[in-house]
Amino acid sequence: MSFLKNKFWTRLQNFFTFRPEKAGEARYVILRRNLAVTMILVTFVPLFLMAFINYVEYRATLHKEILSPMQSLVGKAKHSLELFIAERVATVSFVSKAYSFEELADPQRLSQIFSVMKTEFQGFVDLGIINEKGIQINYVGPYQLLGKDYSEQPWFHEVRVKGSYVSDVFLGYRKFPHMVVAVESSVPGGKSWIVRATIDTDRLNDVILSMSLDPESDAFLINREGILQTPSKFYGNVLDRLSFPIPSPTYQPSVVSLRDDQGRELFMSYAFLREPNLILVMVKPKVRVLKAWTTLKSEMLVLFVGGTLIVLFVVIKITGIFVNRIKEADEKREAAFRELQHHHKLSSLGRLAAGVAHEINNPMAIINEKAGLILDLLPQMPQSPYRDRLETLTRDILKSVDRCRNITHRLLGFARRMDVQIEVLDLNEVVREVLTFLEKEALYRNIDVRLQLAENLPRIASDRGQLQQVFLNILNNAFEAVPDGGIVSITSWEVDADKVAVSIQDNGHGMDEETMKHIFEPFFTTKKSYGTGLGLPITYGIVKKLGGDIQVQSHVGEGTTFTVYLPKKAPHAE
Ligand code: ADP
Ligand code: MG
Predict the structure, then answer these.
(1) Measured in angstroms, how far is the CA atom of residue 500 from the centroid of ligand 1?
(2) Distances in whole angstroms, Cα of residue 473 to Cα of each of 316, 560, 573
(3) Which residues, 6+ apart, have CB-to-CB distance to 142 below 8 Å?
(4) Separation of 460 CA from ligand 2 center, angstroms?
(5) Cα dist from 530 to 3, 526, 527, whole Å
(6) Does any ligand 1 atom lie closer than 6 A to the CB of residue 186?
(7) How far is the C-alpha of 539 from the C-alpha of 471, rounded, in Å?
């Protein structure tokens, strides 16, 4: 278990790590994508779940609130209808059993019985007695049915077999929708007769009307062939054929959804009656039922889509900002790291150079001393033919020693071994001093040196000698970069309360990106025959030591600008 958990976490961490192996931009694209995907997942999964649960819940409620009432209404009405019919059958059955054939055959007695039936149980239209041969032998009611022969009618045979019979609604001889209840009775071993009563189907409709449906709903009875037994609001009158298929038989009220021939989407609740053999149907248009649902659904959809869009927008914005921040921080860190690395390189190289310089300084001092001694000894040998020659050679030695000393001196400077001597100085003055060294070359090569020195540049506390070297190095490079007749501009200004700056701009050959990367490295030079590659690293070392900074801008063929920023107070100054 914990192993799985660990695995999961490593996965998750991997998902968010930078993938340093991916170069540059790519890792930020990946990070951004991962972040966005995770955030979207984290927000959307609950959102989707919520929407889904809402949907399911609402469907369930809908069922409870709308479909269940329909079902129970149909159940109740079914019961009422069954009870109504059962009562009529029981009444007719009672009449057939309670009276003898002779009593029933007596017209007066029958009309008496019928009047009691009519007042006690509503819905009876007429009452008749039919003998074994199917002939109506007695009749009370509004029609002239005495003597009618029913022997050929199917219900007559059914009642003979089953003992009782309830018909569907039919028109019969009287061309009026009615329903027949018939019960057979007999004396043991003797003749049998049938008591037959007609029920007004309006009574059935009354039961349905008592369901008190809302105006959009419809309820009616149909028989198993789909013939309407009571009038319908939507599908015609009694004995019309229903236009959609009969539902599958069930005595439990149930609900199905269907589309009728008029294209209406419906919920249909129905139940089969046990007796008579009819089906109670109730329909409710879906539009009506689902109106609340559809509006809610569209509101939910709008909310969902709106929410989704907002979430997407925010996620994309936030990840963008976030990743950009990370990228910036990374870039800063990388730059700082590069600078540090450079520093390290310089200082280790510097230490090496300083060691070498130091070691060489001693023998040089000895050579210098010995050569001086030789010069001192020369006057002692006036007659020697080699005297003059010896003197020139010795002086050459001294000159070379001097050059060596110069170089070791520079190397020591590069290694920051040279002491810093802080004084308050005018930077413009330092620049002018350095320029005096270069005056001759400028004149000779016709180089235009333009001075734009700030007039009231604040004096700064720094090291004059080292600053001279800085500007000399940069100006030397500028002079070497420009052709004869080129331009070198020197500008000084006050940057802010703590800093001043000097920029040296030339219109020489410039540098490409690759060169720019290496110019501060010791011994890097593009001047094959005469360059040492020490000028800029030394300059860089000095400027840093004095608490300043140096920046370079260059374009190939256009020129280069070196800008030296210096603090008004070098860190060594007390
Ligand atoms: P060196 O001058 O001995 O080559 P530097 O350290 O002074 O050594 O300069 C290093 C390199 O930087 C030069 O070889 C040159 O390629 C480049 N460089 C420096 N200053 C300029 C400049 N003003 N214009 C063009 N290239 C320059
Ligand atoms: Mg140089």
Answers:
(1) 24
(2) 51, 14, 24
(3) 125, 126
(4) 26
(5) 66, 9, 6
(6) no
(7) 8
Ligand nearest to the CA of 522: 1
Query: Residue 417: its pLDDT value, please?
Result: 43
**What pLDDT, on a 0 to 100 scale, did the predictor assign at position 550?**
94
Give the pLDDT score at 425: 93
Other beta carbons within 10 angstroms of residue 416's beta carbon come to 19
Parallel/antiparallel/unpaired status of strands 254-259 and 265-272: antiparallel
Q: Among 9-18, 81-90, 324-333, 361-370, where is mean pLDDT lowest?
A: 9-18
178, 172 Cβ separation under 8 angstroms? yes
Q: What is the pLDDT of residues 212-243, one digit of tens each?
A: 788 888 899 888 888 888 888 888 888 888 87
Tokens read off for 447: 């180089």
Extract the tokens encoding 293: 């649902």
In this model, does residue 20 exceed pLDDT 70?
A: no
Atom 21, ligand 1: residue with shortest CA distance: 477
3-state helix, strand, coil in the chain (%, to 5): 55, 20, 25
| Protein residue with least CA distance to atom 16, ligand 1 | 526
- Answer whether 560 contacts ligand 1 (Cβ < 6 A): yes
Report DSSP letters for 25-79, one per residue.
Answer: HHHHHHHHHHHHHHHHHHHHHHHHHHHHHHHHHHHHHHIIIIIHHHHHHHHHHHH
SS3 string of 102-122? Answer: HHHHCHHHHHHHHHHHHHHCC
Flag whether the pTM goes above 0.85: no
List C-alpha distances in Å: 494 to 146, 498, 548, 565: 134, 9, 14, 10
Tokens 């949907």 correspond to: 55
Sequence letter at residue 516: M
Q: Write the DSSP string, 159-222.
A: HHHHSEEE---B-GGGTS-EEEEEEEEE-TTS-EEEEEEEEETHHHHHHHHTT---TT-EEEEE
Alpha helix positions (H), 234-290: 286-289
| pLDDT above 90: residue 151 | no
Enumerate the β-bridge partners of residue 279: 222, 272
Q: Is the model's pLDDT at 493 over the cut of 50?
A: yes
CA distance linking residue 536 with residue 533, whole number of Å: 7
Inter-residue contact 235 to 228 (CB < 8 Å)? yes
Which structure tokens are listed for 160?
């003979």
d(CA 346, CA 549): 16
Q: What is the DSSP string of 415-431?
A: TT-SPP-EEEE-HHHHH
Rounded Cα–Cα distance for residues 370 and 357 (Å): 20
Is residue 506 within 8 Å of residue 486, measured between CB atoms?
yes
Closest CA to 476 of 423, 424, 410, 420: 410
The answer to whether residues 473 and 536 touch, using CB atoms and an 8 Å cutoff, is yes
Structure token digits, residue 370: 């010995």
Q: Are 447 and 489 in contact (CB under 8 A)?
A: no
Query: Which uninterrupted H or E stretch holds 259?
Result: strand 254-259
Q: How far apart are CA 415 and CA 409, in angstroms?
A: 10
Pocket test for ligand 1, best of 479, 487, 523, 536 (most atoms within 8 A of CB): 536
The Å distance, Cα 513 to ligand 2 centre, comes to: 18
